[in-house]
């Protein structure tokens, strides 16, 4: 480990803290919701149509330009059927909102 490279020299340890950075990084409630839903009571298995819609939401996820929530949505897809459904809905909403912005809508 004595020969390991380090980035310690890039870390500023003196002077005042930076003022051009956010104090916190808020996490929207909607991102945490699928995890809470995973603990809910068991639901019926998804049918073929529902599975296809969820698979389509995987495609929409690749098209969504907003990178911040992608890891949380990807993790939520592994949390159970109810979380998959809610995450797929969120993906559709995000995709449509982006398309609306591109078209000049509000």
List the helices and strands and how they pair.
Elements: H1 29-38, H2 48-63, H3 70-76, H4 81-102
Helix pairs in contact: 1-4, 2-4
Overall description:
The mean pLDDT is 80. It is built from four helices and no strands. Helix 1 packs antiparallel against helix 4 (81-102) and helix 2 (48-63) packs across helix 4. It is 52% helix and 0% strand. By secondary structure, it is mostly helical. It is elongated and about 60 Å long.
Structure summarized in a few sentences:
This protein is mainly alpha-helical and 106 residues long. It has four helices and no strands. The longest helix has 22 residues, at 81-102.
**Largest sheet report:** none
Q: How would you sum up the global shape?
A: elongated
The tally of strands reads 0
Number of helices: 4
Beta content: under 5%
What is the ordering of alpha helices and beta strands?
A: HHHH
Q: What is the average per-residue confidence, as pLDDT, rounded to a whole number?
A: 80
- What's the alpha carbon Rg, rounded to whole Å? 20 Å
Low confidence ranges: none
Distance between the termini: 54 Å
Helix percent reads: 40-55%
SSE class: mainly alpha
